[in-house]
Design goal:
This protein has 138 residues and is mainly α. The chain has seven helices and no strands. The chain has two domains: 80 residues, no CATH class; 37 residues, no CATH class.
């Protein structure tokens, strides 16, 4: 096991520095240094930034507190897909039952008084919101 780990680490260390185009640097900079960047995206962008500066994968992993495989994953993804590859891929799942407009409408109703929507109640409950949903026919 130690021999395999040493061999894989040596292979990771021998990779050439990641080369980024000026456009990639321009897209990456706000992700690394921006104030309101999602943590996952910041971490991925920081991995690429440090690799592009010439740091070894092991050094980047230690600096950012991630596994060496994580650094390799994002290096590969960025090499094949560019900076846009750092964003999450679409996930599988059931499609939403309601449109964005319908969700907004329910939120607007919930912020209003029930009697303004034909419901005789002082406060909203799940059952009175369902009743309002039936009355609104969605």
């Amino acid at each position: 096991m130690g021999v395999l780990r040493s061999a894989s680490m040596a292979a990771a260390q021998s990779l050439s520095p990641l080369t980024l185009s000026a456009e990639d640097v321009a897209r990456l900079r706000p992700l690394v240094f921006g104030q309101k960047v999602e943590r996952r995206l910041w971490l991925r962008a920081s991995i690429i930034w440090h690799l592009a500066e010439g740091m070894a994968q092991q050094e980047v992993a230690e600096l950012l507190g991630v596994h060496l495989r994580t650094v390799g994953k994002w290096r590969t993804r960025c090499s094949t897909q560019g900076v846009s590859g750092l964003h999450d891929l679409p996930r599988a799942g059931a499609p939403s039952k309601y449109t964005a407009a319908q969700r907004c409408e329910v939120l607007a109703i919930a912020c209003d008084e029930p009697r303004h929507h034909g419901v005789e109640a002082n406060d909203w409950t799940m059952s009175t919101l369902r009743l309002a949903q039936v009355l609104l026919k969605f």
